């Protein structure tokens, strides 16, 4: 009885020892340097890529107008407010004309006066004409009398002189008449000039559009060229997209675009690259492209941020890999390949890539090769690995 | 010959096993403390290793973004790239941020929610260091805005959105931490510059109003001046450091020299940066943990010694009987020593297992080093042996008459 009790104790102790040693071995193998690095793998497959470019842009108006006076002055009235829709040549605002109206009235009076002056000149001319005719008749009669020696030669000469004077007076009144006729023309032209100046202080809409800002209120003084109102053409809105220079290969006019506005992240609006700017931004290292909407949404606001994805044409058939598989080792790009259970670093040449992380392998890899994608740690050629389905998180 | 130690253990095996386990848990705590210390040092090193940089270029007369504030213009990297021996160079920005999961619909939950994680946000140029070398899920960043790679410790899952600028998590990585052990979130450099230097909307609006109220900046006769000033206030093109990889076979110091001399920048090699990160940054907290470790080790050693001592004292009558029947002193000493060493071994194994089991539960990284384990084993055995000598002395001094007297 005693012996069997000791036997049981020995058995229990031995079992405890075995459990402890097994736990120790498990712990040493699972944690620490001897533990295998868990990795996920993918079979390299052939396929086509549809690469895309991604950029951030702002909604801008292709045509926007700054409406202001051409000379310094004070704003008298502003007829429209922000958000108003305006028609071409509608009155938007008016500058204070100061004395332009009075000058017009003065010129109106001057023109009337010039007409009167012309009538007076006409009457004077008629008077001179009458005198001239009388002098001519008198002179003819005296010359005849003088030839018959009824009167002295002196009396004849007086009449002749009177006739010459009357002729000269007619010429003078002719000239006077012409001058009086030109005066109203000058005054009418002058009055037209003042009226144009008067029209110039009325600020009109240059095109159909929407008022986006009202920068000066009645009574405020603005300098020449300063804006009183800003108007844009809503039909001309487009998106100015900035793309990272390093990731803009293939950018060209005509590419189809998907525009996602910040105000409506769930909806992509179709568009097209209307223009690629010839000058890119050297400070931000970005290229600029302008994307117009196929059909502009109704409620677009200028300055709104938009995410723009440009689709490039599909590539040729090639081996595809997820970009997480691509590693760099001492300035060499390559992938870790599992070859008969052993790890091998294979340098590859990378082509284009898509936004969802697929990379085209131009050469260095055959389809069907098993490639390491994710790993718990950096792996080397001698790493002890264990292939699992996923390491962490949900798969995309 | 019959094993006295074995017989004694069999006799009171429950007591022996329980003592061993208790001792083991104490050793486990001590080992864990050592692992915590190692983890802390490793956190400081890992930042340097993960960056993949041979040289850290920072603002002149500073010690880099992790030790103090360092800011450079983001075009300084072009000058650095032109220097001989430089293979790759890239600007990088670091900022510590309380990252929040965006609630459904993209709106961040209210301030102070339990959902936020302290993280170090790294802004990097895509495809350049310090892009993480390996991912555990997802993919690398492909869009130049609004995408992020997060460390698994942040708790983010793929496809989740991070607040403020709505970054989408597209990849997960592991062991990417700041020198303080905060997990990292990688985002494109331009987004990081915005997040770091751009103020919130209210501040921007206030700043605009303040500028507009300044008569010397808002002159009526100069249209456009105010707009120009406000535009220049809104952008900031600074970064914190430039990471440089030198061409293979180039002496790093010879690349760093011209940067210090001619570029008016400060450059740190790998070793210098590690010195800053490990020796300077975590110096006090590491010493704090180290001190605690030392005290814990001393206390553990004392407890081990006392346990073995009291265990022997409890058997004093049996030892007296042994002496009475003429057992040799060597045999008695051997019994006590064997028991002490056995206890130490069980304690160590239990301690190692428990330390490994609870290590992943710690919020910060705990590094289990094999070297530490071996050192721990040797230390436990030596302490047990020393403690048993104390017990052996008592046992040998026992008067055999006590067996009858007592």
Q: Would you give an account of this structure?
A:
The complex is a heterodimer of chains A (396) and B (406). In chain A, the strands form six sheets. Chain A has a six-stranded antiparallel β-barrel with strand order 3-12-15-14-13-16. A four-stranded antiparallel β-sheet of chain A has the order 2-17-22-21, with no helix packed on it. Chain A has a four-stranded antiparallel β-sheet with strand order 4-11-9-6, with no helix packed on it. In chain A, helix 2 (100-147) packs antiparallel against helix 3 (153-200). In chain A, 32% of the residues lie in helices and 33% in strands. The longest helix of chain A is centred in the N-terminal third of the chain and has 48 residues, at 100-147. Chain A is of the alpha+beta class and 396 residues long. In chain B, the strands form two sheets. In chain B, strands 1, 3, 4, 5, 6, 7, 8, 9, 11 and 12 form a ten-stranded mixed β-sheet that branches. With 406 residues, chain B is α+β, with helices and mostly antiparallel strands. Helices cover 52% and strands 16% of the residues of chain B.
């Amino acid at each position: 009885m005693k012996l069997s009790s000791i036997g049981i104790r020995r058995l229990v102790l031995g079992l405890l020892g075995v459990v402890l040693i097994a736990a120790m071995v498990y712990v040493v193998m699972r944690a620490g340097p001897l533990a295998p690095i868990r990795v996920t793998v993918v079979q390299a497959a052939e396929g086509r890529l549809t690469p895309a470019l991604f950029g951030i842009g702002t909604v801008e108006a292709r045509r926007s107008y700054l409406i202001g006076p051409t000379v310094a002055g004070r704003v008298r009235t502003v007829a429209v407010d922000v958000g108003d829709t305006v028609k071409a040549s509608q009155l938007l605002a008016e500058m204070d004309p100061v004395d332009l109206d009075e000058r017009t009235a003065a010129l109106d009076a001057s023109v009337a006066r010039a007409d009167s002056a012309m009538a007076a000149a006409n009457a004077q001319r008629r008077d001179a004409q009458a005198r001239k005719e009388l002098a001519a008749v008198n002179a003819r009669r005296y010359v005849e009398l003088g030839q018959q020696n009824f009167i002295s030669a002196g009396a004849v000469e007086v009449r002749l002189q009177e006739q010459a004077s009357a002729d000269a007076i007619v010429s003078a009144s002719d000239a006077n008449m012409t001058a009086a006729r030109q005066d109203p023309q000058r005054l009418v032209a002058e009055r037209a000039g003042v009226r144009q100046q008067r029209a110039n202080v009325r600020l009109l809409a240059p095109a159909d559009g929407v008022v986006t800002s009202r920068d000066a209120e009645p009574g405020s003084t603005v300098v020449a060229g300063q804006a009183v109102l800003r108007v844009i053409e809503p039909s001309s809105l487009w998106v100015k997209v900035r793309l990272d220079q390093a990731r803009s290969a293939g950018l060209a006019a005509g590419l189809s675009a998907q525009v996602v506005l910040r105000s409506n992240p769930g909806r992509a609006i179709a568009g097209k690259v209307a223009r690629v700017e010839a000058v890119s931004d050297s400070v931000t290292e970005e290229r600029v492209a302008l994307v117009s909407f196929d059909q502009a949404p109704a409620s677009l606001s200028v300055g709104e941020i938009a995410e723009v994805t440009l689709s490039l044409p599909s590539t040729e058939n090639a081996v595809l890999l997820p970009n997480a598989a691509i590693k760099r080792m001492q300035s060499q790009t390559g992938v870790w390949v599992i070859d008969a259970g052993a790890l091998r670093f294979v340098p590859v040449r990378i082509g284009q890539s898509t936004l969802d992380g697929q990379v085209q392998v131009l050469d260095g890899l055959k389809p069907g090769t098993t490639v390491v994608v994710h790993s718990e740690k950096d792996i080397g050629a001698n790493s002890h690995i264990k292939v699992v389905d996923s390491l962490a998180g949900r798969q995309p | 010959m019959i094993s006295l130690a074995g017989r004694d253990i069999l006799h009171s095996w429950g007591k022996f096993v329980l003592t061993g386990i208790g001792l083991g848990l104490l050793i486990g705590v001590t080992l864990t403390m050592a692992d915590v210390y190692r983890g802390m040092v490793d956190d400081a090193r890992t930042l340097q290793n993960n960056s993949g940089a041979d040289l850290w270029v920072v603002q002149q007369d500073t010690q880099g973004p992790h030790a103090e504030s360092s800011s450079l213009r983001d075009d300084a990297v072009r000058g650095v790239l032109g220097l001989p021996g430089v293979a790759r160079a890239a600007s990088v920005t670091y900022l510590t941020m309380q990252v929040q999961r965006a609630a459904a619909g993209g709106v961040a939950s209210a301030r102070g929610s339990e959902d936020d994680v302290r993280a170090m946000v790294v802004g990097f140029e895509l495809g350049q260091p310090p892009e993480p070398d390996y991912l555990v899920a997802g993919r690398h960043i492909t869009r130049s805005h609004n995408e992020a790679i997060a460390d698994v410790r942040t708790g983010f899952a793929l496809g989740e959105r991070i607040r403020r600028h709505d970054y989408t998590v597209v990849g997960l990585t592991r062991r990417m931490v700041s020198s303080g052990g905060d997990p990292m979130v990688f985002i494109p450099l331009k987004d990081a510059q915005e997040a770091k230097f751009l103020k919130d909307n209210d501040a921007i609006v206030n700043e605009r109003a303040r500028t507009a109220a300044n008569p010397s900046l808002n002159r009526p006769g100069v249209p456009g001046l105010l707009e120009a000033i406000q535009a220049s206030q809104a952008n900031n093109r600074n970064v914190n450091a430039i990471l440089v990889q030198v061409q293979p076979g180039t002496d790093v110091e010879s690349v760093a020299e011209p940067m210090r001399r001619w570029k008016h920048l400060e450059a740190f090699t790998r070793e210098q940066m590690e010195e800053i990160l490990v020796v300077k940054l975590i110096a006090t907290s590491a010493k704090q943990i180290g001190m605690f470790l030392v005290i814990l080790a001393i206390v553990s050693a004392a407890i081990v010694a006392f346990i073995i001592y009291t265990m022997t004292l409890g058997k004093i009558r049996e030892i007296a009987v042994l002496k009475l029947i003429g057992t040799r002193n060597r045999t008695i000493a051997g019994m006590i020593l064997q028991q002490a060493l056995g206890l130490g071994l069980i304690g160590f194994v239990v301690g190692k297992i428990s330390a490994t089991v609870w290590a992943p539960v710690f919020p910060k990284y705990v590094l289990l080093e094999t070297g530490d384990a071996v050192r721990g084993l040797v230390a436990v055995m030596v302490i047990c042996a020393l403690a048993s000598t104390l017990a052996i002395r008592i046992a040998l001094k026992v008067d055999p008459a006590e067996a009858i007297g007592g």
